[in-house]
Amino acid sequence: MNNQAIWQDAVLRQKNRVFRDLPARQAGIASACILFSFFLPGQRVLWVFAACLLSEVAQIWLFRMFTSRPLRSVHAAMLFNTSLGVCAYCAMPYWTWQANTSAGNSLAILALIGALLNAATVRTIDLLHGVAAALPAAAVLLWLVLQDYGRSGNLAATAITTISVLVLLAYFLHAMIQSHSSERTLAEARQSAEDASRAKTRFLSAMSHEMRTPLNTILGLSQLLRVEPSAETARGHASSVEEAARRLHMLINDALDLAATAEAELKFRPVTASLRRELEEAMTLSAALRRNPDARAKVEIDDDVPELARIDPVLLRKCLGGLSVVIAGASPAPQMRLSCLPAPGARHRILLRLSAVGGVQAPVSSAFVDTVGLELALALVQKIALAMGGSVRFLDGPGNRALAEIELPFAPVAEPSEGAGAGRTALVVDDISTNRFVIIQLLRRLGMNAVEADSGPAALSFLSEKAVDVVLLDMNMPVMDGEETFRRIRSASGSVSAVPVIALTADFLSEQRDRLMELGLDGYVPKPIDRRVLWAEIAAAMARPQVDQFGLSIRTRT
Predict the structure, then answer these.
(1) In what order do the strands lie in the sheet with 470-474?
(2) For the chain, is the Cβ count within 10 Å smaller at the N or the C terminus?
(3) How confident is the model at residue 230, as a pLDDT?
(4) pLDDT below 50 — which residues of the chain?
């Protein structure tokens, strides 16, 4: 809401609060009038009570006028009327004080404090309303204290009393400000909750429509396929069914990913990988998802961007895939261009720019939010970028086309120095002796101690007797494969369950790597092994705090 809307909402909430307090407030004023009638003429007290009632009636009328015409002038009239009503009420303690009786003076002070208490607890939603109600009571209270000096002539006593009253008034002012702040925070939280509820309702409604559309296609064409005699027509129906199924699959995946991010289940799992390869795979996948026969993806990487880095390929692909959907929806074009360069003025950060290229130039459309699919993609991209420690922004590119920029942290992988792993011990588990030999030689060049096992059971037996800093585990072994060996390591007792385990595999498929990382492995090294990748994964795995099966931290050996 803008400032005008916030102000109107505060005044209207103040109206509701004042109306709810009306019976108790009038009962309190009536009780005060009865008590003051013992010290003041009855007719004078009746006039005060009538003035207070008239002020309440006028206030109700002004509040209702403000509801239909929220003008500043009406608000000013409300504040003025509030002050007049409190002034009428404060006349009774002022007159009673003049009589200078012990009981009357006590009643006058209590009545004024009651007025201040009402202002601090009931009238602070609209802070100006509270100030208008508190000022007359505060002024009369100060005047009575100063007037007492004329009676007693005791300057010290008057000074002490005045300071005490000022402290009391300062506390009331502080309480009013705090109450106003709390009310405003509560109102904002309530508004946010209501907005979220409405957005959820709209989302579910749109999601229902978006999912029913491909479902209707699948169900309808499936029924037609059962009775279609023409093979060519049947192939067309099958193609439409496949397209609808892909659309439905993408919607469900995006919804599940978004739910995972909302529940803080999205985990950043960096591995050492080739940035160019990952970007090209991501863009190729995004082009395939668009199901456009002319769809193309072009990747341009600046020469200053290192070849290898610690990145999370899974999140990177999801982020770029979502960005492609949003950009293609906003500026339809056959080709997507992705450029990668070092982020200006930032060390170890990269800037990815994604834009639509080719086709008929058109201004950025409202497709960013036209469908729930694009809404999901946009929300998912923002959350994934945040999970990776980055940020996303959308700009107008050349030809008024949509342009997305994502800035991400980027840890380049340097050439390991000789002896970088000195004092560490690695267990190499592989059923092929030549593979173990090559890996052990690479480890020794890094200064690490290396021991070997030719099977999963042999590795488990070794780990039960001796401690190591890291396990390099081949995933494709006979009898007991790498996955089963890893599960048994994690279910073992003591510190064995916490040892870092890095997967070694000749499978270059990104889906295989993603699945292995989902299992909880601490790293991934593809074969043939690059010593830079090997050391980067080992260093990262050993740097992580390890916990045993009970969730207790275990310090890595030094």
Answers:
(1) 449-453, 425-429, 470-474, 501-505, 523-526
(2) C
(3) 83
(4) 360-371, 547-558
Residue closest to 427 by CA, chosen among 480, 485, 487, 514: 485
Edge to edge, what strands does the sheet with 402-409 contain? 296-301, 335-342, 349-357, 402-409, 391-396
CB 291 within 8 A of CB 250: no
Q: Do 278 and 258 share a domain, yes or no?
A: no
What is the DSSP secondary structure assignment for residue 416, as one 8-state letter?
Answer: P
CA atoms of 124 and 225, how far apart (whole Å): 69
- The pLDDT score that the predictor gives to residue 210 is 66
* 405 part of a folded domain: yes
Question: What pTM value is reported for the model?
Answer: 0.48
CB 466 within 8 A of CB 553: no
Could you list the residue range(s) of the whole structural domain that residue 92 is in? 3-153
Check residue 80 and give its pLDDT.
Answer: 95
Would you say residue 87 lies in a domain? Answer: yes
Closest residue by Cα to residue 261 from 377, 405, 407: 377
Tell me the three state secondary structure of residue 180. helix
Contact 350, 343 (CB under 8 A): yes
Tell me the backbone φ, ψ of residue 306, rounded to 5 degrees. -60, 155
Torsion of CA 232, 237, 240, 242, to 10 degrees: -90
Give residue for tokens 């995933």.
Answer: 475
Shared domain check, 548 and 527: yes
CA 545 to CA 358: how far, in whole Å? 49
The whole-angstrom separation of Cα 114 and Cα 21 is: 14
- Determine how many CB atoms are found less than 10 A away from the CB of residue 22: 13
**Strands (E) located in 108-164:** none
How high is the pLDDT of residue 65? Answer: 93
Residues 147 and 235 both lie in one domain = no
Dihedral, 123, 129, 130, 135 alpha carbons, nearest 10: -140
- In this structure, the answer to whether residues 450 and 533 fall within a common structural domain is yes
- Burial degree of 275 (CB within 10 A; 0-12, 13-18, 19+): buried
Give 543's contacts (C-beta < 8 A, 6+ positions apart). none
Pair (13, 146) in one structural domain: yes
Whether residue 445 is found in the same domain as residue 479: yes
| Rounded Cα distance, 225 and 240, in Å | 11
- The last residue of one of the domains, among 389, 412, 435, is 412
Instruction: Give the C-alpha separation, 278 to 306, whole Å.
Output: 13
Same domain, 430 and 474: yes
Phi, psi of 301 (to 5 degrees): -120, 130
Compute the distance between CA of residue 267 and CA of residue 549 in angstroms, rounded to an integer: 20
CA dihedral 125, 126, 129, 134 (to 10 degrees): 50
C-alpha to C-alpha distances, 116 to 14, 127, 373, nearest whole angstrom? 17, 13, 55
290 and 364 share one domain: yes
Residue 285 confidence (pLDDT) = 64
How is residue 476 annotated by DSSP?
Answer: -
3-class state of residue 120 by DSSP: helix
